[in-house]
Specification:
This protein has about 260 residues and is an all-alpha fold. The chain is built from ten helices and no strands.
């Protein structure tokens, strides 16, 4: 068996990141049902209110099918975003401000990037669990098995990396739970409605379209919608999400390093 001292730098980083992830998983697995159920409530409300309520009054030809089919991929993206962000933010914020176990984690012989990656991956896992529940509902309602396409889950994973990474940064910076609410109200809630979840961004005018396409959720929703419709995924969506995730990893690792100073 290879010891950590015998590992390469890359192998040691993966090992340390998975160690941090495992600690969060031990806490998460005892309340899996609660996490999945809480992340499923809002998408179900949106599906019923918009997909069936509003959708029944709209001309489906404008969306290439029913409005329900149009918004379901966005609901998976929305669920992944909110749970990845919220779960990571409250996990780190709670450890820092209340349970006071954050300092113990910082004392572990683990590089800052591994701390960030472990916490971020735990948030991705939370997001994928709830998004998986939404996908199950989507398949039940539509019978569209393209929701299980590998590209669909690649986009969900990248989406989780972006918003779990953002959640880790917010969790490291805020001074109270009230500040978490402010970050959620000014970043996540507006993005929920402006991120291409309920409308086609390509139909907007140029100035507003630029703003909407600057939001990571727009690229996730658009990419997922293309895959669910059987179209080719535009790799620009993958590139944008991956670039944002890498940038957040750089910022997050520096913040973890500063916490040790």
């Amino acid at each position: 068996m290879v010891t950590k001292l015998e590992m390469s730098a890359g192998q040691a980083l993966v090992y340390d990141s998975l160690t941090v992830l495992w600690g969060d998983w031990l806490e998460l697995r005892s309340r899996l049902t609660q996490v999945v159920a809480s992340g499923l409530i809002s998408p179900l409300i949106y599906i019923l209110a918009f997909g069936y309520g509003l959708g029944s009054t709209l001309d489906g030809t404008a969306f290439g099918g029913s409005y329900l089919d149009f918004i379901l991929p966005g609901m998976a993206a929305l669920s992944s975003m909110t749970i990845s962000f919220g779960g990571t933010t409250f996990s780190i914020c709670g450890d820092r401000l209340y349970s006071k176990t954050f300092e113990e984690m910082l004392l572990a012989p683990v590089p800052p990037l591994a701390l960030y990656l472990g916490k971020m991956l735990a948030g991705v896992l939370r997001g994928l669990l709830t998004a998986g529940a939404v996908v199950a509902v989507a398949i039940l309602f539509t019978g569209n098995w393209r929701f299980l396409h590998p590209g669909f889950w690649l986009m969900l994973g990248l989406n989780g990396m972006v918003f779990a990474g953002l959640g880790a940064i917010v969790g490291l910076k805020v001074a109270s739970l009230e500040a978490v609410g402010l970050a959620n109200n000014f970043a996540i809630v507006p993005m929920s409605f402006l991120g291409g979840t309920f409308f086609d961004p390509s139909q907007l005018g140029a100035p507003l379209q630029w703003v909407v396409y600057a939001l990571p959720l727009t690229h996730t929703s658009t990419g997922l919608r293309a895959i669910a419709a059987g179209e080719n995924l535009a790799w620009i969506h993958v590139a944008v999400l991956a670039s944002v995730a890498i940038g957040l990893a750089w910022v997050g690792s520096r913040l973890f390093a500063s916490q040790r100073d």
